[in-house]
Amino acid sequence: MTEVPRLPVSGGCRNTPILKQRGQREVFCGLTGIIWLHRKMQDAFFLVIGSRTCAHLLQSAAGVMIFAEPRFATAILEETDLAGLADAQDELDKVVGELLARRTDIKQLFLVGSCPSEVIKLDLSRAAERMTQKYAPSVRVLSYSGSGIETTFTQGEDACLAAMVPVLPETDTRQLLLVGALPDVVEEQALSLLGAMGIGPIKVLPAPRADSGLGIGPNTVFALTQPFLGDTHAALERRGASHLAAPFPFGEEGTTAWLRTIADAFGVDPATFERVTQAPRARARKAIAQASEVLRGKSVFFFPDSQLEIPLARFLTRECGMDAVEISAPFIHKGIVGPDLDLLAEGPTLSEGQDVDLQLDRCRAARPDLSVCGLGLANPLEAEGLATKWAIELVFSSVHFYEQAGDLAGLFSRPLRRRDLLSVDAPSLCPKNSGGEAQPRGQSPEGAVS
Predict the structure, then answer these.
(1) What confidence score (pLDDT) does residue 7 get?
(2) Where are the domains of the chain?
(3) Cβ contact 326:348 at 8 Å
(4) Preceding peptide of 280 cis, ω within 30°
(5) Three-state DSSP class for 145?
(6) Does the pLDDT of residue 346 top 60, yes or no?
(7) 216: pLDDT strictly greater than 50
(8) CA 47, CA 72: separation in Å to the nearest integer?
(9) Which of 234, 253, 229, 249 lies closest to 179 in space, CA to CA?
(10) What is the pTM of this model?
(11) How far apart are CA 49 and CA 124, in angstroms?
(12) Taking residues 292-318, what's their average pLDDT?
């Protein structure tokens, strides 16, 4: 297999005008971040203050059986709470007291706001301060919003980590902080690569336990592993930490650039960097070449959903040979995704936010080979003959760093392979024109697109 040639950067897309439209949006609830966060923080508990719908969402998303005891739950807002006939703060205090008495292993308690709690203006930050005074030092109580009213679903993690930063202790130690929740096996790969270069000490946020010794200070440098952590980025800089801006570690190129940025900051010599990365880089290039064969020359259209869109577009265009028609993200933070924008060749439309009707019109006009979108748009687009990729699957899958690079390419190639397998070329099923020739797929005998 030969390596896919890199596309020319031609100035990159950092200064490309961004289309900003505001209208009806298609978003997924930020509460879903709890599904991966509760697995990372072993002594934490997430208490959602919401409705029965919130409870059903979390239980179905996590696949939790009703007799299991996971590290999350929902305090149901009843009609009396919503109508103001009961003091919701008193009710919340009672629920938390019962929870902590039953679950003595909890060291961090997150009060998570939802659409219903925000509608009735329930002040969870005040409740968290009151409970911290009551239960400290054995339990730390924090609050954040997971509401889907104003946020996209990955911002649940951002809000959670941003809430943790102000209460972390001060430290003057020169350290590297990796920010963003990763699957354990992926996190171990990153730590192994950095450790083999002699970089240390290394801390991670979120830490597995409250007593992990994680502190923040002016000698802390941090690297983001997820591009949707804008609030956390700002909170860390307010604490004096310095951000190492780099392309995100998707694919061989992104991972190498991310690692090299850190290595340069810690004075790792080029020979050591090459020795540590040479073998996994070769494996990643080979895996990508094999998995992306069906992607080369195909077009892709990104709807705004996970905020992974810009780094993934860089990966698909530069490492898999795809052409991006439109790259849309809920928010574009150039201080975070700027290095990825620098590597994107000029050409695609960049858009921030969404007017879903107008964006659907652009997608239908472009007829891309692959549309990356949320669950709410996937089935309608599939019904119109457009192959789709669920954006949410990219968040729940292991896609970072070298060893997952081939799997990442495979997630995008799979819908196209499936479409090819399902397509029927039998002449009896193709419309004929008057001359008996089969019409192109998707066209009526008059040539109009169906």
Answers:
(1) 54
(2) 18-25+285-422, 30-151, 175-278
(3) yes
(4) no
(5) strand
(6) yes
(7) yes
(8) 6
(9) 229
(10) 0.87
(11) 9
(12) 96
Give, as one character, the DSSP assignment of residue 427.
G
Strands annotated E in 262-408: 299-302, 323-329, 349-352, 370-373, 388-390
Residue 191: count of CB within 10 angstroms of its CB: 16
Q: Does domain 30-151 have CATH number 3.90.550.10?
A: no
Taking the C-alpha atoms of residue 157 and residue 160, their distance in angstroms, rounded to an integer, is: 5
pLDDT digits (tens, 9 = 90+) for 249-283: 999 999 999 999 999 999 999 999 999 999 999 99
**What are the residue ranges of helices labelled H in 176-229?**
184-196
Nearest of 388, 246, 259, 352 to residue 16 by alpha carbon: 352
CB 297 within 8 A of CB 4: no
Of the candidates 405, 399, 379, which has an alpha carbon nearest to the alpha carbon of residue 390? Answer: 379
One-character DSSP codes across 29-76: -GGGHHHHHHHH-TTEEEEEEE-HHHHHHHHHHHT--TT---SEEEEE
- 423 token code pair: 């397509």
CB atoms inside a 10 Å sphere around CB 398: 15
Burial class of residue 291, CB neighbours in 10 A (0-12, 13-18, 19+): buried
Taking the C-alpha atoms of residue 292 and residue 394, their distance in angstroms, rounded to an integer, is: 16
Question: In the CATH scheme, what is the homologous superfamily, with its name and number, of domain 175-278?
Answer: Nitrogenase molybdenum iron protein domain (3.40.50.1980)
Q: Would the CATH topology of 30-151 be identical to that of 175-278?
A: yes
Superfamily of domain 18-25+285-422: Nitrogenase molybdenum iron protein domain (3.40.50.1980)
Q: What share of the chain is helix, strand, coil (3-state, %, to 5)?
A: 45, 15, 40
Q: Which amino acid is at 205?
A: L
